[in-house]
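## retry 2 of 3
previous attempt timed out at serialization; input unchanged, resubmitting
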Amino acid sequence: MTMHVEARRGHQAEDMALRIATVAAWLAVAWAAAPLAQVSSVEAVVVVPLVVVAVGAVLLGLERRGAGAVGLTLTGTAVSMLAAATWGALGGTLLLVSGIGALVSSSKEAR
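## retry succeeded, writing output
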């Protein structure tokens, strides 16, 4: 293996570690902020942020591969409605925007 390939793998590992750390920090903040949003159930506190970040990561990947705008928009709208229904209009919007922001800011292509 050449040194260039090894260096590239090292950078990829660093990028992945940064992304994991960013998303983990976002999840911790989201879970800590749940009482402020007056989320009614423990399940909604835990599951909805995980759904937002998981679906967001998939949508970002699909968008980079040229997925259709209609499917991305409909899926994003469904996740937005889930967040608003469980975390309230303001809390759900902040959850969604901050989650996507965390994903985009930590991705290699955003730098």
